[in-house]
Design brief:
By secondary structure, the chain is an alpha/beta fold. It contains 10 helices and 13 strands. α4 links the parallel β4 and β5. 50% of the residues are buried. Bound molecules: oxa(dethia)-CoA (UT7).
Length: 328
């Protein structure tokens, strides 16, 4: 029997043109180009100009994905935006994007799963399609971390960048497509990576503004260890679900958090480094945008051929993590 599955029929991405180099950061905090490259693998990142919002980035990535997919705005049944940096607390950026695209039929909502936002969105969209509740869904991973980073904290401000990645999923009957996804979280880790203030528990006060509590705070080395362990484990679990070995994977697209995290998990999984997609040098850690933007780059550069098996794996605040296996 042929099963109903979802398949990615188009990808798109967008990074703002403004480059922030390590040398620029040398002028802002006590750091060096050499330290950043050796400890993170990042050479430069892209950041938005004032006035550019999340839905602007999403619109560009979405239009590019929809063009590749050959779908019109009115074909979309849902729009899901994986993000922790919406345009505004309310309404959802997915609704703002819906308006910009004119996707009037779609149900639109945001999904907050830290840097794992795209994998979570993929898991949710895949379920709606498998159950027959939706036929065509636009999913995004997008974040503007430059607006929530503490530019005085050298341990975090050197890491992050802005961007958006999109994919159009459509129902089809056959083998391959989105084979399976596992998502995980561990709320015991909430304090390892968070923005303490500005939400409903601790609203902004005039005193709190400016002391860094409205910005990302991270216990870097703890997060580092959890990221390596969690991404390796969940990626292996997804492979086990399908009786596959790392040798069966043509391309691994890990979350682009730190080249040392990516190298460590690549070693743990035992995958050939030539089969790992790396974009962190150009864009830094763009949170939930990292995976879909890297997938788009791989597709457009011909690094993905029909029938290829692609393994995606991400980790982020929550803690959240997950992996997805796709056959192109
Ligand atoms: O996307 C979501 C998940 N996020 C991540 O996965 C990020 C995970 N963490 C990391 O990538 C790394 O922990 C960091 C890049 C954030 C930090 O690298 P590290 O090798 O873990 O450094 P560290 O925190 O252990 O600090 C080592 C030293 C410290 O100095 P002392 O105490 O040894 O004198 C830091 O103050 O490096 C210092 N340091 C810096 N030095 C120059 C921290 N940041 C910088 C900097 N430039 N930018």
């Amino acid at each position: 029997m042929r099963l109903r599955r979802s398949k990615i029929i188009g990808t798109g991405s967008y990074h703002p043109p403004k480059v922030l180099s390590n040398f620029d950061l040398e002028q802002m905090v006590e750091t060096t180009n050499q330290w950043i490259i050796e400890r993170t693998g990042i050479h430069e990142r892209r950041i938005v100009e004032k006035g550019e919002g999340l839905s602007d980035l999403c619109e560009r990535a979405s239009r590019s994905a929809m063009k590749m997919a050959g779908v019109k705005p009115e074909d979309l049944d849902q729009i899901i935006v994986g993000t922790i940096t919406p345009d505004m607390p309310m309404p959802a950026s997915a609704c703002i994007l819906q308006k910009k695209l004119g996707a009037n039929r779609a149900a639109a909502y945001d999904l907050a799963a830290g840097c794992t936002g795209f994998i979570y969105s993929l898991a949710v969209a895949d379920q709606f399609i498998r159950t027959g509740c939706a036929r065509t869904i636009l999913i995004l991973g997008a974040d503007i971390l430059s607006n929530i980073v503490n530019w005085k904290d050298r341990a975090t401000c050197i890491l992050f960048g802005d961007g958006a990645g999109a994919a159009v999923l459509q129902s089809y009957e056959g083998t391959g497509g989105v084979m399976g996804t596992r998502i995980r979280s561990d709320g015991q880790g909430v304090d390892l990576l968070k923005i303490p203030m500005g939400g409903s528990a601790c609203p902004a006060t005039p005193e709190s503004l400016g002391n860094g509590d409205h910005c990302i705070q991270m216990m870097g080395s703890e997060v580092f260890k959890c990221a390596v362990r969690s991404m390796s484990e969940v990626a292996q679990e997804v492979l086990n679900d399908f009786g596959l070995d790392v040798k069966d994977i043509d391309l691994l697209i890990p979350h682009q958090a730190n080249i040392r995290i990516m190298n460590a998990m690549t070693r743990q999984l035992g995958i050939d480094p030539d089969r790992v997609m790396v974009t962190i040098d150009k864009y830094g850690n763009t949170s939930s945008a990292a995976i879909p933007a890297a997938l788009d780059e791989a597709v457009r550069r011909g690094r993905v051929q029909q029938g290829d098996r692609i393994l995606l794996t991400a980790f982020g605040a929550g803690l959240t993590w997950g992996a997805s296996l796709i056959q192109w």
